[in-house]
Design brief:
The complex is a heterodimer.
Chain A lengths: L1 H18 L8 H50 L46 E2 L2 E2 L2 E13 L4 H4 L10 E16 L2 E11 L5 E12 L6 E9 L20 H7 L5 E10 L5 E9 L35 E11 L4 E13 L7 E19 L2 E17 L2 E2 L23 E2 L2 E17 L2 E12 L4 H6 L8 E13 L2 E12 L3 E15 L7
Antiparallel strand pairs in A: 1-2, 3-4, 3-20, 4-5, 5-6, 6-7, 7-8, 8-9, 9-10, 10-11, 11-12, 12-13, 13-16, 14-15, 16-17, 17-18, 18-19, 19-20
Chain B lengths: L1 H17 L2 E5 L2 H11 L3 E5 L15 H7 L3 E4 L9 H7 L12 E3 L33 H18 L4 H26 L6 E4 L5 H7 L2 E5 L10 H14 L3 E4 L6 H10 L2 E4 L13 H19 L1
Parallel strand pairs in B: 1-2, 1-3, 3-4, 5-6, 5-7, 7-8
The chains are: A alpha+beta, B alpha/beta.
Chain lengths: 519, 302
């Protein structure tokens, strides 16, 4: 208590020393006088300001009166068909001070049309921005030497058939909910290779606008902020398809789920932000977690039903990101992320995914429409999947029945031991916008396992863990910011399968007001 | 106890009277005027560079931090910064610069905008600005209004420094008035001269000084010219007697450099923003450079 008191004392003293003129020892009298003088000065300033304000107001009122009279005079002289004068100034606007050279009389704006019941109801446009609505369509067409395109391409929105694919039809609703929150929702339609249309509520969340202590809360259904690519939508990608590592670790639709995320702008002299999200850990969009994989075996075993018992059974996604301006024209953003949660194998098993990401961008200080620029993005991830023990003798009769996977050596239902499976992956991409509307890109993908798993020794190599790499050069032309045409070639090498070549053409168009993307 | 509190109060009172306002401007032009009005009572940061296209500025994460600490945010509005400012303000977590907080200054409502589209607007017209032409700072009369608005707003936020802002505003107005008369005199003999620009970014400047826009190199806003468009443009503007091609230094040079001699006009590289070149260090410097370049070029071509 004494220590606290003296700390308050000394800090007040320091502050006082900086601002108050040099004083000798503790003359309380002098301090009182100073305070009184300051108070007097303050009140005098207030009075002066009020007086000048009132004087200005009176002058402006007089001006308005004079102008009104001129208007009346002009109206009575003008021909009857003249358009009405432009709308009066909004309240609170400071009128131009006297003596300012006034621009020539403004051209009369046409009178607003009276509303009729057949007019569309406008929620947005002009000054009304209650809802920003946009629609983005992404379509691809092409072919590949691979016969198993649905295994070659790992993204849910990737072109997975020869011919045309409607990758993504995204409707985004966005706007200010009230002075406290911003809201956004993404509803996505796509048509799968069977011709069936599916609809997904990808995102629907609220974000706070200004909480104290530099915090921000996001709650609802949203994409996890893991790495740089996962939180983005396919139409914003620089390539036609998803990187291999994202597809393998975060799933074909990425890591997204319902939950809440708190972020804190760290008080460092450079930009740095700390994120922590807690989300549901189940479903196809929590791919390496509590996911039943549609009843198919994953890591050699079928999924068990896991319930949420404790907070540890949720999906936790922490992240840290920092950014530095290397120069006027260069910026880097570096981040580290992790995802922790239970998975669907037996026992108390969990999955951990770690990722680091780095983004470097150069943009010409004399950019015209944002060109020329160079962007280089790299992400590396590692996944530790703790798999519980699993016996393939589902009916317990000791012999191989249909639907039971058997050991290659014995032909009997395989008994898989508990083990930890570690996989790695990375991608690196460079994009070069060399002329307005033209971007050339090159991406390299590489995914590989740490070592062969015990279950693979029993059941055979798992193609989902096989080493593979891909090289993708591409060229994109943007006729405007709202449309694009992209040509991409993929060279794929899959260990145990071989090489494949694919060529894709992609088209995108955007209607409406789409919010600007994050850097 | 009472004495300790009095010390603390005195110290704090003293401290606040001397803290500079943290002002962030989207464009260096607004920043320059803010600096002129605020003097050493403000610390001004501008996000866009004077050398770049103001519609396509990168929302670098470092600006999130800058906006988080801002007391005042000055933006032009009229959809000029729509492509990059909103995500920065949304993540800045700074209540002082949200919506219509006093610290958030949007300039366009105080000004009379040109080129407000009449009739329905959609993107087949190019990337047209639905609320009017947002490049309004190139008219010195608008510069005066901007200065007045900023002085008012700064005084509202930091009332103790209001006399300083008022005095600076007075000084700024005097210098600007003097210079405006000078510029008007220089360009008076050339009123009615026809010019071509790349994009409609000089509209307010041309309107103020009586120059006439005879066409743009862009067929529509945000759309690059095709060779066939340029071939159609050349005879049209040649007949009209265009004397100057005005292009910002960041535009691609190939087409303007071909066009100017083809129509018998002079090509001038004019910055549209403070910091756009060496000579445009502040607001008056920018206009001074542009006016003098045009006056000299037209004098020589007579």
């Amino acid at each position: 208590m004494k220590l606290k008191g003296s700390w308050v004392w000394s800090s007040a003293l320091c502050l006082a020393v900086l601002t108050a003129p040099a004083q000798e020892t503790n003359p309380l009298e002098k301090l009182h006088q100073q305070l009184e003088r300051m108070q007097e000065r303050f009140e005098q300033q207030q009075r002066e300001m009020r007086e000048s304000f009132e004087k200005q107001l009176r002058e402006q009122q007089a001006q308005i009166q004079a102008l009104k009279q001129q208007l009346e005079a002009a109206k009575s002289n003008a021909p009857p068909a003249a358009a009405p004068q432009p709308a009066a100034a909004p309240a609170g606007q400071p009128t131009v001070p006297p003596g300012t050279p006034v621009p020539g009389a403004p051209p009369p704006t046409p009178a607003p049309k009276p509303w009729s019941p057949t007019d569309p109801v406008r929620l947005f446009g002009g000054q009304r921005n209650y809802l920003n609505l946009s629609f983005d369509a992404l379509v691809a067409g092409g072919t590949s030497t691979a016969n198993d395109l649905d295994r070659l391409e790992l993204g849910g929105h990737d072109p997975r058939q020869r011919g045309f694919t409607v990758q993504n039809l995204e409707t985004v609703f966005e706007g200010a909910v009230d002075p406290y929150f911003r809201g956004q929702a993404n509803v996505v339609l796509q048509i799968d290779p069977h011709g069936d249309a599916t609809i997904e509520a990808e995102e629907a969340y609220l974000e706070t606008m200004s909480l104290p202590a530099n915090l921000q809360l996001k709650a609802g259904q949203f994409v996890s902020e893991f790495g740089r690519l996962n939180p983005t939508h396919p139409h914003a990608w620089d390539f036609v398809d998803q990187p291999l590592v994202n597809g393998r670790f975060l799933g074909e639709d990425g890591l997204r789920s319902a939950g809440a995320r708190l972020s804190w702008l760290v008080p460092t002299p450079f930009y740095s932000e700390l994120f922590l999200a807690v989300q549901n850990s189940q479903g196809g969009t929590a791919y390496s977690f509590r996911n039943d994989h549609a009843g198919m075996p994953f890591m050699g075993r079928l999924s068990a039903d896991r319930r949420v018992e404790t907070l540890g059974d949720m999906l936790w996604v922490p992240r840290y990101a920092a950014s530095f301006n290397l120069s006027d024209a260069q910026t880097i953003v570096a981040g580290a992320s992790a995802a922790f949660g239970p998975n669907s194998t037996s026992g108390d098993t969990d999955t951990q995914i770690y990722g680091v990401d780095l983004f470097w961008k150069w943009k010409s200080p004399r950019q015209h429409a944002g060109f020329p620029f160079i962007g280089w993005q790299t992400e590396a991830m590692a996944r530790r999947f703790n798999a519980g023990a699993f016996h393939w003798d589902l009916n317990g009769n000791g012999i191989a029945d249909p639907g039971e996977m058997t050991s290659l050596a014995t032909g009997l239902p395989a008994a898989l031991p508990r083990e930890t499976l570690t996989d790695y992956g990375l991608y690196s991409q460079v994009v070069y916008g060399f002329r307005k509307g033209w971007v050339a890109g090159l991406r390299g993908d590489y995914v590989f396992p740490e070592k062969k798993a015990l279950y693979e020794g029993l059941l055979g190599a798992d193609p989902d863990r096989a080493l593979r790499w891909r090289l993708s050069p591409n060229l994109t032309y943007y006729p405007s910011e709202f449309s694009k045409i992209r040509l991409q070639y993929n060279f794929d090498h899959r260990q145990g399968i071989g090489d494949d070549h694919s060529v894709w053409v992609q088209l995108e168009f955007l209607l409406g007001t789409h919010a600007a993307h994050k850097f | 106890m009472k004495t300790k509190l009095l010390w603390l109060a005195a110290a704090l009172l003293g401290a606040t009277a001397h803290a500079a306002l943290n002002v962030v401007a989207t464009l260096p032009d607004f920043g320059a005027i803010a600096q002129a009005i605020g003097g050493d009572k403000v610390k001004v940061t501008s996000i866009a560079k004077g050398t770049e296209d103001p519609h396509f500025v990168d929302a670098r994460p470092s600006y999130i931090r800058v906006l988080n600490q801002a007391d005042v945010l000055i933006e032009g509005g009229a959809e000029l910064e729509l492509g990059w400012l909103p995500p920065l303000v949304d993540t800045a977590r700074n209540g002082r610069i949200l919506a219509d907080a006093p610290g958030h200054v949007i300039l366009s409502p105080y000004l009379h905008l040109l080129d407000i589209p009449t009739g329905p607007v959609d993107r087949s017209l190019g990337d047209v600005h639905a609320l009017g032409n947002p490049h309004f700072w190139l008219d010195p009369a608008n510069g005066k209004i901007i200065a007045h608005v900023l002085a008012d707003r700064f005084s509202q936020i930091a009332p103790a420094d209001a006399p300083v802002f008022r005095a600076n505003l007075q000084k700024f107005n005097e210098r600007l008035d003097q210079k405006t008369i000078e510029w008007a005199k220089l360009l008076a003999p050339y009123r009615g001269t026809k010019v071509i620009t790349y994009h409609k970014s000089f509209e307010y400047f041309l309107a103020r000084f009586g120059l006439v826009l005879a066409g743009t190199i862009e067929p529509k806003p945000g759309i690059e010219p095709s060779p066939s468009y340029i071939n159609g443009l050349v005879p049209r503007v040649k007949d009209a007697g265009v004397k100057l091609v005005l292009v910002e230094p960041f535009r691609p040079r190939k087409t303007p450099e071909y066009l100017a001699p083809a129509i018998g006009a002079r090509l001038l590289l004019l910055p549209q923003s403070v910091g756009g070149n060496e000579q445009s260090r502040d607001y008056l410097g920018l206009l001074d450079y542009d006016v003098n370049q045009i006056a000299t070029a037209l004098k020589e071509s007579k």
